[in-house]
Amino acid sequence: MKNFNYKSASNTKEATKLASGRATFLAGGMTLLPAIKLRLAAYSDLINIKKIKGLSGIKVSSKSIRIGATTTHAEVANSKEVGKSIPSLAVLADGIGDPQVRNRGTIGGSIANNDPAADYPSACLALNAIIHTNKRKISADKFFKGMFETDLKKSELIVSIEFEVPEKSGYAKFPNPASRYAIVGVYVTQLKKEVRVAITGAASCVFRSKELEEALANNFSSSAVDNVNISSKEFNSDIHASAEYRAHIIKVMTKKAMSYC
Ligand SMILES: Cc1cc2nc3c(=O)[nH]c(=O)nc-3n(C[C@H](O)[C@H](O)[C@H](O)COP(=O)(O)OP(=O)(O)OC[C@H]3O[C@@H](n4cnc5c(N)ncnc54)[C@H](O)[C@@H]3O)c2cc1C
Hints:
The chain is α+β, with helices and mostly antiparallel strands. The chain contains eleven helices and 14 strands. The mean pLDDT is about 95.
């Protein structure tokens, strides 16, 4: 069904009230509108959330960066504060899609959608993010549940995403040459208390690699990656890359990410 009512909310309360039944939120529309057009999804109402004041913007403190849900990828990529505190996050945002996608697409839309090849979910896991919704706080470790599946409940609105400022970090992506989505993307961080390695594009959902985290926690250097065995058992295999190739690329991208740390 391509017919729907278009409504615009002026605050979060109104947005969640309007998003009941078969309605859904509309942010940048970069994923939602193609899905409707291709008849992969159908809704009675689309609730525009981009006019809600306070849902967009970047706030920096010494320990974290909080980014409003409707902040665009271009705003994150061009933010001096993000570039200074978490340069790898600005690099990630700058590598999403093309200028049109970066100027329309939002961080909240990206993580709510949880595409297996999207970039931001890896940043959320690697930077120990907290997802603030209109109802609660969700740790990134609990937020991403499976392919296009998150812990969000019906009508629950992401308000902002809070990233821990790392001591060191790097993101490296082997992109699909057409869409720029990740065939494999690896985000490495050295946080105050732990080392995290998050991988997108390889499997049905973003995940943390225990093997790589253990190796880098013992020795935070590229050479530590050499002896790590990455099993391809659960990985995607498609026209772009076999599961075995993805397993190989993970190590290559981890080393590349380490070179940015
Ligand atoms: C050609 C193309 C190339 C792309 N390349 C990349 C890429 O390289 N890397 C990458 O990561 N992504 C890529 N994308 C996706 C892009 O990053 C989109 O920004 C993202 O998928 C969705 O964001 P949006 O703001 O457009 O959300 P929308 O399309 O408006 O919404 C997506 C979903 O999220 C829900 N939603 C939106 N905002 C909220 C909120 N605040 N709270 C709760 N639910 C919400 C909507 O209801 C909908 O279900 C690409 C897209 C296109 C079209």
